[in-house]
Structure formats: C-alpha cells, structure tokens
Amino acid sequence: MGGGALGTLFGVFAAALLIDVPVASALGLAAMAAILAHDIAPLPVVAQQMVAGLDSFPLLAIPLFVLAGGLMGAAGLTGRIVALALSLVGQRRGALAAVAVVACMLFGALSGSGVADTVAIGSLVLPAMKRAGYPPGFSAGLLGCAGSLGTVIPPSIVMIVYGVATGTSIGQLFTAGLVPGVLAGGALMAVSVWRARREGWGGAGEAEGLVAEEGAWVGLLALGAPLIIVGGIRGGIFTATEAGAVACLYALVVGLVATRALTLASLWGELRRAAETSGVILYVIATASLFGWVLGAMGAPQTVTAWLLGLTRDPTVVILLAMALLLVLGTFMETIAVILLLAPMLSTALPRYGIDPVHFGLLLTLNLAIGANTPPLGIDLMAACRVAGIPMRESFRHLPALLGAMACVLLALALAPDLVLWLPRRLG
C-alpha cells in the first residue's frame, strides 16, 4: 500500500477528531474510509476484525476488575482507605497532600482505573484540602496525577490491554508495576509536601476531622485484593481473567460481611456501571483493532521497524524516541487507543534492540499516565477539576512541578530497566 492509503486513514481520523467525533468512532470511520477508498478488503472484514479484536479471553478481565473496583467503593472502603493513609502519614504540615497520594495509590490497587481513582478519592480529600488552605488548582492537579497511578499499580486495565495487544504476560506486567507505582507516588509526595511547606499551606492538624478514626483498620482489607490478585497470578493459581472473578468475590465478601455496607440496590448499581464502563472500553478496543488491522495490511509495522533500524542501533535512543512520541500522542488521544495503535507496531521492532516488552509496557503505562494530566485532553485532570468545581486552566500553573516529578521517574525507569524488571525476575 502506498502513502495515499495512509493519508486517507490518518486524514479521516484527524478530520473526525477536529469535528469532535469520539475517538472510538473516529478510528472506525477512518478504517472504513481507507478500506473503501483503496479497496484494501471486502467491507464485511470491518465486522470480522472488530469481533476478532474482542475475541480474547484475557479481555474478560476488564469488566471483572471494573466491577471489583466499584464493589470495593460501594462497600465503604474509600473512606477507610483515606483513614488508613492518614494513619500512615501522620499529622504534620503537608499531611493532606501526602494522604491524597497514598490514598490514590491504595485505591488504585482496587480500581485499575485512573478516572475512578481520581473521583473516588478526590470527592473525600479535595474539600478537606480546600478547608486547609490548599489552592484548588494545586489540589486538583495533585489528585489527577496521583489518581493516574491507578493505571500503573496493579491490577491495571491499561496493562491488560497492552498485554493482550502485544502477547506480553499480564502477570509479569502486574508485578513489574509495583516499583514504578511506588516511585512515582513517592515523587509526587515529595513535591507536594515541599510545596505545602514552602507556601505555608495547611497546618499541623490540617487532616483532623477528614475521616473517623474508627474503622481505619478495615482499610487494610483493601490491601488484600492486590495481594491475592498478584500473588495468585504469579503463583500459577489462576489467570488474570480468573483473578478478576476472585477480586469480585473478595469485594462481595468484604461488602457483605466486613463492612456490611453493600446492599442489593448498590450491587445492582455497580453491575450497571461496570457494564456501561466496560462497553465504552471494549468499543474502543474493537475499533482500534480494526484500525490496527488496516495499518498492518498497509505494511506500517514493517515500515516503522525499518525506519527505526535505519535511524539508530542504540536501544536507549529508541526508548527515548518512543517515549517522546507517546508523550505527544498521550496529550491528544485516549490511553487505550494509543496503546492499541502503537504497541503492536512497536512490539515488532523492540525485540531487534533487545528491549524487554515488560519494561516497555511499564514505560508506556507511566508515560500515558502523564498524558492523562496534560491539556487539552487530560482526562484524569479533567475529572479532578470537575470534582473540585474549578476550570482546568486554574490547575495549569501547578502542573509543571507535578508532571516533572513523574517525568523524572519515567526517565530513570527508561535508563535503568532493572528498576522495573528485578521484581518480576525475582518472583519468576
């Protein structure tokens, strides 16, 4: 296929985005336009490839983990997770900023979704931060960045999609996400506490009254879910998909027995929300799979591989180039769409450089977590600003320090693969 077919594909895609067509629909329309305009394949292949893109057992883990995270929230664990984070951080200036990050990291180990993490924790922490004198723009920026760690810390929906798209072990990805998630969270805490102390935000007792002290121990139950999930997968007890079912069962037991906050009405509501959220995610996967198939039929993966091999033989340079590209695309495109478009192409080139797919998968995940907080799209930042009740522009001046901290961790992980890979190798 020539450049004309690629021009049609990306031209229609860009035009659709410019007129505010949803990304998932834009991907499907662009693929259909290229197929029709350049006679790539019979039109029925559209339906076949969309179905084939969803015909994967590991993808069943997505609705299961979405449901498990929702059930944990309905079980009343969100407030208890915040209480647990407060007990870990203690009462001192800057405590609320640190609590926000720790709570997001803990809840991220349940939800697997940056937006869910941001909304759940932000609804509790953001009003308290405002009362303590933190600027709403800073608080929203911090919650957006910390919430995005829900895609890095296992279980992660983004990692499941990457694993399915590239054939990488989801269990190894989950294990590899622990260290990067902790490092990124630590960097955000360091920056936010430093800013709070320098600017005089908050005070020694700023977190008093945020949550009730009693019941904080129940937040420890939330930590059981990721331990069971990662331990079970790495121990060969169950697959990633089966782990999703186990997580749902665990959430039901916690909600019905430990906290007794889960009712039939809330259970039905979470089932409905999980179906709606999963439907949106799977629609993106279906159309992106069709788009990727068209790219493959045009020979784009081979072209990218040849271009990279002709450009450099240095794996570090390749990783840095890929990270730069992902940072740009993550600013304008939805995370899952970026993964499904680029990961299959890049995964054919990376083995030529000896780059481990697990290492690259974690770099990609953290990279797109940064992209989820960069305008104009910035879906996690947008969610945080909506919870805070402020326009996005109010958070912009606080973002460079927060995103810079995450970018420093990303660079360290890119240059030192063992930071990502030592835990999967040790447990492997």
Account of the 3D structure:
The chain is mostly helical and 428 residues long. The protein has helices spanning 3-18, 23-38, 45-54, 61-74, 77-89, 95-111, 114-131, 136-147, 157-166, 170-176, 178-199, 219-234, 240-258, 264-297, 300-311, 315-332, 335-349, 357-371, 379-388, 399-415, 418-427. Helix 5 (77-89) packs across helix 6, helix 6 packs antiparallel against helix 11 and helix 17 (335-349) packs antiparallel against helix 18 (357-371). The longest helix has 34 residues, at 264-297.
At a glance:
The protein has helices spanning 3-18, 23-38, 45-54, 61-74, 77-89, 95-111, 114-131, 136-147, 157-166, 170-176, 178-199, 219-234, 240-258, 264-297, 300-311, 315-332, 335-349, 357-371, 379-388, 399-415, 418-427. It has 428 residues and is mostly helical.
